[in-house]
Amino acid sequence: MKKTKFRFPARINGATVAKKTFIYVVLIGLCLSFIIPYFWMLITSLRTELAYNSTGFTLLPLDEQGHLSLFFGNYKEAFTALNLGQVLLNTLIVCVANTFLNLFLNSLAAYAFARLKFFAKNTIFKIILFSMMVPGTVMLVPNFLICDYLGITDSLFALILPFVMSVYNIFLLRQQFLGVDKGIEEAARIEGAGPFRIYLRIVLPLVKPMMVVLGITTFMWNYGNYLWPYIVNVDPNLRTLATSLAELTGSGYDLTVQLAGAVIVSAPMIIVFFILQKYIVGGTMEGAVKG
Amino acid sequence: MKAYTKQLLKRNATGYAFILPLLIYFIVFQLAPMIIALVISFTDYSLANLDPSFVGFDNYIELFTNKAVYQNFWSSLLTTFLYMLLTVPTSMILTLIVSALLNSKIKGEKFFKTIFYIPSVTVSVAMMVMWKQMLAPDGLINQIFSSNIDFLNNESTALVMIALMSVWGGLGYNVLIMLSAMKNIDPSLYEAAEMDGAGAFQKFLYVTVPGVMPTIFFFLVTGLISGFQVGEQMVIIYGTATQVGSVRTYVYEMFYQMREMSNFSVASAMSYFLFAIILVFTLIQFRLQNADAIKERRMLKKIKREAANEKN
Amino acid sequence: MAKVSLKHIYKVYDGKVKAVNDFNLEIEDKEFVVFVGPSGCGKSTTLRMVAGLEEITAGELRIGDRICNHVEPKDRNIAMVFQNYALFPNMTVYDNIAFGLKMHKVPKAEIDKKVHEAAEILGITEYLDRKPKALSGGQRQRVALGRAIVREPNVFLLDEPLSNLDAKLRARMRTEITRLHKRLQATFIYVTHDQVEAMTMGDRIVVMKGGFVQQIGTPQELFNFPVNKFVAGFLGTPQMNFFDCTLLKESDGSVTVRADGFTLSIPEEETYRLDASVLDGAHKVTLGIRPDDITPLKGEAKGAEIEATVSLVEELGVQTLIYCDTDANSLMIENSPTAFCSSTVEPTAIKAGEKTKFRVNISKLHFFDVETETTLKERVPTVKAQCRVEGGEAKLLGGSVVCPGLFSRIESGTYTVSISPAALSFGNGFKGVIEAVEQQGREYVYRVRLGDDRVFLKSDEKHETGEETEIALALDSVGFYDNGTPVMEPIPEAYRFDGTFAKLKVKEGGKTVKRHFALIAGGKLCLPDEFTQKMYDQGRGIFKKELSYEVSLDDITATSMSDTAPMGEGEGLVAAVEDVLDYGYVKYLKLKLEGKPFCVKWVGDAVPPEVSVSFDFDNVRVYDKAIDMKLF
Fold first, then answer.
1. CB contact under 8 A, C533 and A9
2. Does the ipTM surpass 0.95?
């Protein structure tokens, strides 16, 4: 009896399979180049300096004899080296204060430009828009001089105040306010509500999504802001997480300790990112330039 | 007072009340600094000279010409240009390729986008620490390739490495924007190209790239403007006074003058010079952007004239 | 050769949503075929399947005799014009047109020549260095056409190319495209939702609705012989008027049409195609009359008159539309059972509010079944006639037929016979006269008078009206009914059996082997290798699918149990013989499989109590039962 072999059809074109595999290989390779550094940083921070120097390339937390072991001493050292308690407090104060002030004052201004009428409104708006587009680095030196003149150098105020207004935030919030249905405001006005009340109780809640996105981005920007605090504050007790970490790097601590410090400082934001992933990745897309 | 005028005044008062903080901020932290900095750039204000006197354009001239004191001025500009040359084209091409790959129908687009975006949420200092250790003589890279190159202190490799860091870190954000632009391309253009015999690469070249040209332009401009201002990464890695000449960019030199030399007037002069360069570039970009619109207007006028002539 | 053949094409999304159902069409070389229908009817999807932009779920597509189901679009030698033109915005007109040639690596000089030629034909030479955004809609349209014609393909596909143009330009481009078709001598497949485009441009039209083909034919055929209410209402402007009515056959043979507001009388000649059951005066029927067939009456027209009040008069220049209502109190323009529209090309002074009489063109009446909406006046209908059975003889159609084997089984009496055209052919049988001949494509439709009855048949033989002829009747295709109850049903041409496909272990000559079987009605039929491979070609899921096997009568063989070759255990289909039907020239056994009766041809005299049934799997068709899709 003949034994015939029956074949299922090759539903997938050979060329398409090759093409797709190639794409996946490239993308996954690229992904690895992103994941490995972080992973290495995390693992190495859990090893002793001795262990690190004794072994060659490895992505496992091995000690000097090649056994798996987790060493938390680096973190202890980094805690003190970073002066974590004080520094964390400083950072939180600055981030929260700046974000709060930023959102509040910027939305006030944005609302004014969107809805209120006053003399020379458009001219002022254009001037401010244009001048605040001056790149940050250009403003560093002048701002330092002003802070020096005002006597607020070497204080937390210097970290909060100079960044309280942001033209990007004002612009986006103004767009949002323009999109709010005027009828609601007019109804409130007839009821006798003053402009501030309308702004606070009625319109502001309606732009919550944008406020949340801007709040997140502002907070993250403050958290990681290094250059300005470095320039303006010299007192070690006024350091933020960013400047403290930079100090740690330059001071000859063990590589493992430095990495532990980096993990401590960067981990919170990354974790928050993974939790809020869709808002951030989605939020950025909404404000993105249309091709 | 007439009721109308009263109302007008009240309206203006309200408006200004709302923007009062903004105005105060603007004057204190934008206008004043800029004016003061401009003024100081014409003096000799520094730690050595706390009672400044006017010196006119001397600071600027010294910067441009005095090779003894300011030997790094022109080389720092060169370094900045070199950096821009390394990062802008590379970043653009990489972003295009990765976006195109993500745009072909594959699964896990969201996953990849998230992974690529991680550096954007990593505190820049932490990221510098990570790279600094990775590129150290006993760091990750050297371990993998069993070599012993001190990447960051080697004159020839230092700038390249920092450029690589920057391209790597910016990929996530760039891809996000580019990808959303790619998705706006009319799919029937791809179909028409397919019918005409275009393969995958040709479709990319003739449909995708032209389709995202405005975005490419956007990246070019923003890349140039932020490229001019590069300096923070170097300061984090090397501090404000490094011996590695090849990483001393223009802004780095500015910090050096300010922090190490406490030469505030010179630092101000440098900021203003930078401002001038960026301004010029922005204006050129404006011109180029509107060049299309101008061409279109001319073309339409021509067509209208033709139509009018035909009637006669 | 640029013939395009679509056989049993289906498009199914997600295994459930059927966008295109059993699309069958043979397109001749150089033909201009139009797919027309409302949005979402599947016309664009079908076009895209021909283009290769959509995957064909089932069925066979041939372009020029080559099976193209899995061929890349660029290798099919076709060109497509898109609805939104799909011109590359950053390239000049020249580059847009040259793109295809460039992709096929045609030398530069030749590209230049061809582009200029195409530009000449379309009149766009002066725009060659402009970019699409500097062109008007009509110019862009022509560039899109240029891009298509420059590659000299066999088949042109056009997907609603004129939808985005204004009415005047559309009319002009219509003639230009038709002229282009004649000049290029290529096959055109054109998709549109505009029935005017379809009627004016197409050699043949395919009307689609909801994924199903409604009717295929020339514009004339579709206009004059619509197969259902949808096609009738879709083609023709203004739309056909529909009325509810009843039909009553009078003693003199004429039929009275009684509608809400008027009465018409149709002479006997026009009623032959109608089935007697609808002529009882109680059956509700939809009457369709085109506005051009209702015109203002001058004088008298007995039995063809409608009196109505005018609601609105629309002067369109060449033609005048008169909207009327037979109910003087309602005066609606549409969407009312008593309102209709009349169209006339004669000058008229009728004004709104006047009561006027209209003449109806009695020979252009259409009738549709109220529920199924199909036409009651089929082109080649199944005819019912009276038949008297006595002894072994049946007297019908002015003659008689002797078949003792058959007629002795039924009681003597009068029966109604249902004669489908498939049962008739020219040959020995009943004598009669050809009363009417019509041409339909390459065939002819005949109305032949046999005795007191008239029958219809289709044949490619040519005969003249008035000719005396003889018609043969295939008894096995005729049904006998007693007041509606079937007494003897016609033998169908094919049967469908539900079943599945499986790979089973069987003992064969002592060894255990794996073989493939069709599991039908509790039995198993061993499958030949070719058939099995075709099943495998459907993919892995074939083993889990519920299938329907369709077998033609000629491919079913029954053998007595003793004659059957020994098979493996449990194999084969065994059915009990319930009855024997002897039509004289052919004998059938009536069998029952799982409660369902079916017939099998039988040769020989001895009839066993049980037979073993086998199929010729070379010709078996397989359907996916869940979605009713023909697999092969």
1. no
2. no
